[in-house]
Amino acid sequence: MKRQLTQLIVVADYGDGLAWGELELALQDAFPGVSLTFLNVPPYRTLAAGFTASQLARRRFRDPQRTALLLNVDPRLQTAAPILDGSGAPFVCATLTSGVRVFSPNAGFSLSFLKPRINRLVELSDGSGSGQFRSRDDFPGLMAQALRQNGRGSGVRRSVESIPDFKPDGIVALWVDG
């Protein structure tokens, strides 16, 4: 029996204003009745998004298979060429050993801290442009389809090795909480 999503945690940059509100409304339309929690990280900081996701994934969720995270940070640094039509990093679904599903552009270090706990990684979209607001226009539908198909969607399975390792050689990561 498939289990319906009951909790969606969104970790995103630009967590205010119209874009934030439009994403929230799109998620409410795609997942009626689901509890939404929004957490803001600094703009383009995939390291902050990855750290936040890792901290959240350590939590013992009451029902992990009914819980999902959406990491919505994509600095669009995957190419030096001009970016057309809002193209970005491939959008993936990572299923953790706990059963929690994590949806994210596979950008920067967003998934690096979770890498050791990922059982399955499926690319739901190659990131090609469909407009600037992929998170509002594309992500909710791709997520809903993947959840209906137990994290697979119509995507292609990818190797967890496609996620970059975070190797802090000469880097100090600092997180100020409050």
Q: Helix and strand layout, with pairings?
A:
Elements: E1 7-12, H1 17-30, E2 35-40, H2 46-57, E3 67-72, E4 91-96, E5 101-105, E6 118-125, H3 134-137, H4 139-148, E7 156-158
Parallel strand pairs: 1-2, 1-3, 3-5
Antiparallel strand pairs: 4-5, 4-6, 6-7
Notes on the structure:
With 178 residues, this protein is an alpha/beta fold. It has helices at 17-30, 46-57, 134-137, 139-148; strands at residues 7-12, 35-40, 67-72, 91-96, 101-105, 118-125, 156-158. The chain has a seven-stranded mixed β-sheet, with helices on both faces. A hairpin with a 4-residue loop joins strand 4 (91-96) and strand 5. The chain starts with 6 loop residues before the first strand and ends in a 20-residue tail after the last strand. The mean pLDDT is 85.
Number of helices: 4
Physical arrangement of strands within the biggest beta sheet: 2-1-3-5-4-6-7
Beta-strand share of residues: 15-25%
Radius of gyration: 15 Å
Determine the structural class based on helices, strands and strand pairing.
alpha/beta
Distance between the termini: 42 Å
Major pleated sheet? 7 strands, mixed
Q: What is the molecular shape?
A: globular
List keywords for this structure.
alpha/beta; 7 strands; 178 residues
